[in-house]
Amino acid sequence: MMAVAWGGGADAEGARVPPGGDALIAAAMGGDTAAVLAALAAGASPNSSVDGTTALILAADGGHVAALVALVKAGAWLDARDCGTTALMRAADGGHAEAVAALLAAGASMELVNSSGSTALM
61: how many CB neighbours lie within 10 A of its CB? Predict the structure, then answer.
């Protein structure tokens, strides 16, 4: 997992987090939909990421459907990848059926493969 210095805007590796993005990353990871919406309203990019892991991937990984839907509505990239995996792959791997359904309904691709050659449904 990644470590983020929430107040400083940089992760442990020194990669920059877009303005407002640190709050969005924390909110998505924790499934705090109100905080996700507040960060987006304050100008955070729905595609904020730390070390390539987007807020959407973090929300999907935790099965945080309401946060995930808020990010999708704000324009988060559905098929962004973190080390070859997408939000749909993370949700499926975690057994988060509602998150999988929400991502599929939004248009996430079932066709993409990770570095091991697996799709979200394999």
Answer: 23
Structure tokens given for 31 = 């499934």
Stated pTM of the model: 0.81
> Per-residue pLDDT tens for 52-96?
899 999 999 999 999 999 999 999 999 888 878 899 999 999 999
DSSP for residue 2: -
Tokens standing for 54? 């987007």
Q: Is the dihedral of CA 87, 88, 89, 91 positive or negative?
A: positive
Q: Which domains does the chain have, with CATH numbers?
A: 4-106 (1.25.40.20)
Give the whole-angstrom CA distance, residue 44 versus residue 22.
Answer: 9
Pairing state between β 53-54 and 49-50: antiparallel
